Amino acid sequence: MSEPASISTGIAERYATAVFALSKDGGNLKGLESDLDQLNAALAESDDFHTLLTSPLYGRDEQLAAISAIAAKMGLSETTSNVLKLMASKRRLFVLPAMLTQLRAMLADERGEVTAEVTTAKALTKAQSEKLAKTLTAQMGTDVAINTTVDESIIGGLIVKVGSKMIDTSIRSKLDALQNHMKEAR
Prior knowledge:
Oligomer: single chain
Radius of gyration: 19 Å
CATH class of the largest domain: Mainly Alpha
Number of helices: 8
């Protein structure tokens, strides 16, 4: 891992640990989970929000004002809002996506769940997602939460990562394997 990436990960872990501890002590883990859902949705849907977090063109005061307004508009919990404001004042908003990932893992761990990273060619329906979660829960012997991402380049099928295990049933990987076999046959 490169040094800047490991520094960012360390910063994200420290903020995530603080937010989690404050939310847990305040008995507001459900509120924290709701905040995570809203922030993840905002990151996925808004390029402007992502730019606010990462662009050096926005000054400390501009980021603080913007993140305060966003937190108020979203109705985020006091703990989450205060941490976002602190991150803005310290110019650390760029680690927000990594912090959200850390918090998801901490919440899943608290519930005794394992998180499965699932990549699909197109978005799963709620029924498909529930069926996949049920199947993975049966296979793993513990509750499995699913975090899905869409990557059209896999053409079809699924890529499922649970801990150190990975199951790749994507069409892209099958085509790559077929291409390798054809090269070996020459």
